[in-house]
Amino acid sequence: MAVGGVLGSLGRWGVGLALPHRVGDFPWATFVVNVTGALAMGLLVAFLVDRPGVHRLARPFVGVGVLGGWTTFSALAVDAVQLGAAHHVQLAVLYVAATFLVGTLAVAGGMLVGRRVWPGP
């Protein structure tokens, strides 16, 4: 799991470099990693649940390690607080709501697509 966490964290760091933002701007990097992580989790669940022959450590390696390192609730919280402190309260509320709404839809979409691509046993 630790190697997965390193991989996910390095990927998130790379997205942060590619999509930097100043306090008061929409934090696209954190939004992108959290939503894509939610999509990947939906795909992972669709692929691994009730699938015979999958190694028992695949789920924790990818789900906890890679996706745990990739996604970041703490950065979402810091970004929201910083937006509020910079007097961008409406943007902070939009950011948090959009992350949870789009993230939830991404998980559902990932599961739907995954179940069609990888039908269960």
From TrEMBL:
Q: Where are the transmembrane segments?
A: 28-49, 61-85, 91-113
The record lists Na(+) as bound by G68, T71
Would the keyword Secreted be found if you checked this record's keyword annotation? no
How is the protein's activity regulated, according to its record? Na(+) is not transported, but it plays an essential structural role and its presence is essential for fluoride channel function.
Q: Name one Pfam family in it.
A: CRCB
Name the major location.
membrane
Catalytic activity of the protein: fluoride(in) = fluoride(out)
Tell me which family the UniProt entry assigns to this protein: Belongs to the fluoride channel Fluc/FEX (TC 1.A.43) family.
Function noted in UniProt: Fluoride-specific ion channel. Important for reducing fluoride concentration in the cell, thus reducing its toxicity.
- Its name, as the record gives it, is Fluoride-specific ion channel FluC
